[in-house]
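Morning F.,

Quick status update on the modeling queue. The single chain you submitted on Monday has been processed. Sequence for confirmation:
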Amino acid sequence: MKRKKQVFSLLQYAGIFLILVFLLFPVLWVLLTSFKTNMEAYRFPPTFFPETFNVNAYISLFTVHNDFFTYYRNNFIVSGMTALITTMVAILAGYGLSRFHFKWNVWFLAALTTAQMFPVVSRMISLYDLLGKAHLINTHAGLILALTAAMIPFTVMLMASFFDGIPRAIEEAAAIDGAGRMGILLRIVTPLVKPGMLAVGLYAFLMTWDDYLHAATLIQSDALRTLSAGVALRYLGELSYDWSLVNTISIVGMLPMILLFFFFQKYMISGLVAGAVKG
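Structure tokens below.
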């Protein structure tokens, strides 16, 4: 029996290892290709490891292609503001959904759930029309509002599940001491749901960082483009032959997300799991 358990555990680890290799191999290939010369990147049959580690693509990216860092900065602005606004809206709406129960609450939850079923492309025409009437096309403000609207349905329900796990007795005690509704929310309840706030903020930031469709549709000025749209429209269009540079851009573009998830994965996973089992 003990031997069977050992064999089963070994098979489990082997399966996990194969899955990791399957998932991480494309990232490893991109990393290795970024150190190849462009001629070697086109070689057939391809080489796995570079014959000589070439860093010319990295030097060129930091010295010649300054427009890349314009897209980089825009990505941080749009992703950061979207995460901040989404978190604020999710706190207010999630608290209201958790604490105030009306006959139309079920319909509100159904609307939030239904909003996540439609693909992004299905709402782009109406979204473009609405932002055009508000004169927000080709602005970061319009892009941030569009992305925030896409993030809100899931994040509101996630925050509501966190608020459901906070005992109402705490709020009732604060109300007896004279605290108002907003004071209870901001001073008493919000500090207790910090894992949920962090999970919502990280989720919004990660999902916004690699957004392409919204940015490509709502932004026309090259100076305002974010990373995904800027790289796709400039480097893959004009410099598609330079695969070493394209792979270098991919690696540098992934670094913030890798570091962010590496340092905050414990809080993000615990927050999402806690929110899933409460209520």
